[in-house]
Design brief:
154 residues, mainly alpha, two-stranded antiparallel sheet, 7 helices, 3% strand
Length: 154
């Protein structure tokens, strides 16, 4: 997902809005959690910790992508006005939570649709992908080990 995001930015010229940046962060952090979990390969409680971390990060990304999809589907007259400030400026001048609040509550530029694939916008694809990855993390980490499942069935 990040490879396509970078391709669309640097080759297609589709520059990310603030909500896109937060979705990218969620994808990167979710990938890092999955990588560390795969390398660590924990059992028991450790596996559940990685599952919870992955689902929390995925849920945050799903929430941001959902907000983005919602903004894109608003009628033009109901789209909130753009704050005009870039994400970099907001993060430099405001405390972190104030900047996040402003981005999530007033991002009219995020309502613009500049790309579609199979009728779905990029944030919709991120929403679908993070949802699938979150379910996959749960299913792959909460299954019983093969030996224990075989012993329980005897």
């Amino acid at each position: 997902m990040m490879a396509f995001a970078l391709y669309s930015e640097h080759v297609l010229g589709l520059y990310p809005c603030p909500l896109c940046i937060f979705q990218r962060l969620a994808v990167i952090v979710m990938g890092l959690v999955a990588l560390v979990a795969a390398v660590h390969n924990p059992a028991g409680v450790g596996r559940m910790v990685y599952t919870v971390l992955g689902v929390v990060v995925g849920g945050l990304g799903i929430a941001v992508a959902g907000r983005h999809v919602w903004l894109q589907n608003l009628p033009p007259d109901q789209v909130p006005a753009c704050g005009g400030a870039s994400l970099d400026y907001l993060l430099e001048t405001l405390p972190l939570f104030d900047a996040l609040n402003q981005v999530l509550n007033a991002s009219g530029e995020c309502a613009e649709v500049s790309w579609r694939f199979l009728g779905l916008t990029m944030p919709t694809w991120v929403l679908v992908a993070l949802s699938v990855l979150s379910v996959w993390i749960v299913l792959s980490n909460w299954r019983l080990p093969a030996r224990r499942a075989a012993a329980d069935s005897i």
